[in-house]
Amino acid sequence: MEYHKLVIIGGGPAGLAAAVSAYDAGVRDLLILERDERLGGILNQCIHNGFGLHTFQEELTGPEYADRYVQMVLERQIPYQLRTIVADISPTRQILAVSQAQGAVTIQAGAIILAMGCRERPRGALGLPGYRPAGIYTAGTAQRLMNMEGQMVGKEVVILGSGDIGLIMARRMTLEGAKVKVVAELQPYSGGLKRNIVQCLDDYDIPLKLSHTVTQIHGKDRVTGITISQVDVNRVPIPGSEEYYACDTLLLSCGLLPENELSKSAGVSLSRITGGPEVSDKLETSVPGVFACGNVLHVHDLVDYVSEEAARAGRNAADFLTNGAETAEHVTQLRGENGVRYTVPQRLDIAHMEDSVTVRFRVADVYRGKNLVVYYDDKQVKKQKKRILAPGEMEQVVLTRQSFQGLEPVREIRICLED
Amino acid sequence: METRELTCIQCPIGCTLTVTIDGDAVHVTGNSCPRGEAYGKKEVTAPTRTVTSTARVRGGKLPRVSVKTRTDIPKEAIFPVMKAIRALDLEAPIQIGQTVLPDAAGTGVDIIATKSVEKE
Question: What is the fold of B52-113?
Answer without folding.
Answer: CPE0013-like fold (3.10.530)
